[in-house]
Amino acid sequence: MSRVLFSQTPPSAVFSRFGKAWVSSLGVWGIGVGTAALFLLSVTPIVKNGVLVKLPLVGGVYEDKTPASDKPF
Predict the structure, then answer these.
(1) Model's pTM, two decimal places?
(2) Cα gap 49→44, rounded to integer Å
(3) How many angstroms separate the CA atoms of 45 and 71, rounded?
């Protein structure tokens, strides 16, 4: 006669399998969406002065060098 053994899978194993399958893909998509949002919002003053000017290598590109007399507002 054969024996049937039932064993429960611990919850940590389920989350481990889910993490291995999805974390790398979600990370790549998150970096892509974040980069796209940053560059699409780069024309707004809040993002430009708050984030892009403070970047170490490319901050000088986003600095506003227009004299105050040439600004309309």
Answers:
(1) 0.60
(2) 9
(3) 14
